[in-house]
Amino acid sequence: MAQKVGFDWKEEEEIFDKIQEEIEELKSALKKRKRDEVTEEFGDLFFSLLNLARRIGVNPEYALKLANEKFLKRFRRMRKVVGKKAGLREMDKVWEKIKKRRFP
C-alpha cells in the first residue's frame, strides 16, 4: 500500500540506515526499562527488517527457518565438542570455530 503511493525508500542503504536508527531507539528504550516502549521499538526494528527483506526479495519466514536450522546444527555440534560442563567462554570459542568450519 505505502509503496504504491511512493512512500518507500529508493535505495537499500536507506533501509540499512533506518535499521540502525531503530536499533539505537531500541537500545535507548532498554536503558529506560519501559516494557511498552521496548516492545514498540522492537516492533519498529522488526518492521524495518521485513521492509529490507521485501526490497531484496527474501522470504522472511524461510530465512528465519534456515537460521533456526543452522543455529541448531551448530549448537548441537558445539555441545558435542565441549561437553556439558563448559563455560560460556569455551563454548563461544568453539562456536566461532564451527562457524568458520574448522571443526568437522
List keywords for this structure.
about 100 residues; Helix Hairpins; 2 domains; 4 helices; about 75% helix; extended
Notes on the structure:
By secondary structure, this protein is mainly alpha-helical. The chain has two domains: 1-58, Helix Hairpins (Orthogonal Bundle); 61-104, no CATH class. It contains four helices and no strands. The protein has helices at residues 12-32, 35-56, 60-82, 88-99. The longest helix is centred in the C-terminal third of the chain and has 23 residues, at 60-82. The protein is extended and about 50 Å long. It starts with 11 loop residues before the first helix and ends in a 5-residue tail after the last helix.
CATH architecture of the largest domain: Orthogonal Bundle
CATH superfamily of the largest domain: MazG-like
Which secondary-structure class do the elements indicate?
A: mainly alpha
The largest pleated sheet is described as: none
- Element order: H for helix, E for strand: HHHH
Total strands: 0
Strand content: under 5%
**Total helical elements:** 4
Task: Domain count, please report it.
Answer: 2
What is the arithmetic mean of pLDDT?
90
CATH class type of the largest domain: Mainly Alpha
* Percent in helix: over 70%
Protein topology:
Elements lengths: L11 H21 L2 H22 L3 H23 L5 H12 L5
Task: Compose a concise summary of this entry.
This protein is mostly helical and 104 residues long.
